[in-house]
Amino acid sequence: MTLQFATRNDAIIAGYVPFLVATPQNRPYFDTAPFGLSIAEREIIDPMRLESKTFLHLLQRLDQLTFGPEGMPMPLWIFYDCSELPGGIFGFGRYADALDATLLAEYGVPAEYHGLVPFSMYIAIPMSRPGDWMGHNLASLSPTFPELGLRGLGAITKALALKVYRVEQFYGVTQWESKALYIHTKFGPLGLTTAFTPAHSTPHSLTYSHAVDEACIRAACGDPTVTLDYPPAELYLDSLDEKGMIELQEQIEAGERFAIVGPPERYENGVRHPIARR
After folding, report:
1. Residue 162 included in any domain
2. What is the domain extent for residue 179?
3. Model-level pTM?
């Protein structure tokens, strides 16, 4: 299967199976054929059914493989209460019979299981205003198993998930030192709502948002015909500069508006982010 437009990541899209975890109540509101990439009936998983147990446990294992002990691993109740019930989970995978023994062992796939094994997922949750969604979790095997050649899988998964969920305005929370921030900047400039967030268990978290349209989704998928506009940076914020984060947060609270206007820039001692006033 392919999309209705060409991307730099067509080989990944054609080689993996799209899936959607959705309750019967939420499913009618989702686009199950984003840009012509049809999600087969058997790959739409109902989290309220006994038969979904193994696949949902494999999603949790994907989360663990992606983030490891240093991340914020999710117990199954968070998947259900905060993801599967109110929102959805979209991703790509492959059938167990097509995987080698090493990968099956890493996942702990039961010998009797022949279903789909998830390689990526994007979880999002609807907010109060219709069309507004919050991103909850992006996971991909790409950085964990670089030998699989899955570079770009994370961005494709998030982009198509936004299309599946019919998102109009997107909100996300992540950490300044997060390696995934470069993926989020593929959708265009990210408006900053918070730059330092004591309400979060990791205060070095930022809250960002951006409008969602076809152009930003296609750009993030790797469509070479789409170019997004990024203003030049006016300042740079180091990912470990707490003082700078707090100063930026104070300006935001005073009414000034800022955006991240490009991917993180790595240097010898860490990562810094290009910021501009909006």
Report:
1. no
2. 168-278
3. 0.93
